[in-house]
Amino acid sequence: MSFAAYLRVYVPGDPRRVPEHRHDPLPRVLERGAYGVSFESSREDAFVIEREGRHYLCPRHPRLRMLEGLLAFRNAYPDPVSSSLVPESLARRAAAELDRIQARHPEIRSCILTSPFHVPPRWFAAFHPRERELVPGPAGLSIRYRTGRGAAVRRLQRARRILRRAGFDEDVLAQVQALIDWLRPFPADALVELDYGGAARHFPEGDLATDESAEDVAASLRALERGDFETAGECYSRVAARWAHAQALTFTS
């Protein structure tokens, strides 16, 4: 998914123990596999970053992520749409292979969430607006946020409480809770990174320079907390409008 955004978890580790690694998350050549979908190189390497003199690793586990992503994509749609997108026979094969991997390696879990074409607004709730970084890359300017795992979970828990008290439906709450549940098992000293990745290519560099999506989400939550639904809606609408075109591509591709 060359136009995807990513949420990654990096755990403290020794990069010398990784057979192959890259110090920067770069675009990858996609391979076409037996399931009829394109996915990243199947090499078991990891992203490596250094922060305050300490190394952190984000294993890619590409096969595991491909299988989980395929099944999640199918489950996101009701029948008969889901069966037309991913046939039942293919889904059974993927589920069986995923079960085998998890049985052989119960310690392995996905360290990367992938969102095609856009950043889901709930991801921004895990970060403080001041954690935003403009980063140059091979394809141009991009944006990333990095924070500690503990801070990310606390912010998401607060967001969920605010949304629940404001009367949002269970589907919205469940999406935030799923993100909390994904992050919570990682070590307390892990790092969480939101990387616009290829999704940044939807925007001119000038728009990226003024993109304050995390601040808009934070402002919306603050307004909801004090019962100011009008301001909350205005703040959230800015995020929704900013990503509307990119998100629409999810349903047309």
Short description:
The protein has 253 residues and is α+β, with helices and mostly antiparallel strands. It is built from 9 helices and 10 strands.
Order of helices and strands: EEEEEEHHHEHEEHHEHHH
What about the largest sheet?
8 strands, mixed
Strand percentage: 15-25%
If you average the pLDDT, what whole number results?
Answer: 85
Residue ranges: pLDDT <50 for 5 or more in a row?
A: 25-32
Helix content: 40-55%
Radius of gyration: 18 Å
Number of strands: 10
Total count of domains = 1
Distance between the termini: 11 Å
Number of helices: 9
Structure, explained:
The chain is an alpha+beta fold and 253 residues long. The chain has one domain. It has nine helices and ten strands. Strands 1, 2, 5, 6, 7, 8, 9 and 10 form an eight-stranded mixed β-sheet that branches. The protein has a two-stranded antiparallel sheet with strand order 3-4. The longest helix is centred in the last third of the chain and has 24 residues. The chain is globular, with a radius of gyration of 18 Å. It starts with a strand and ends with a helix.
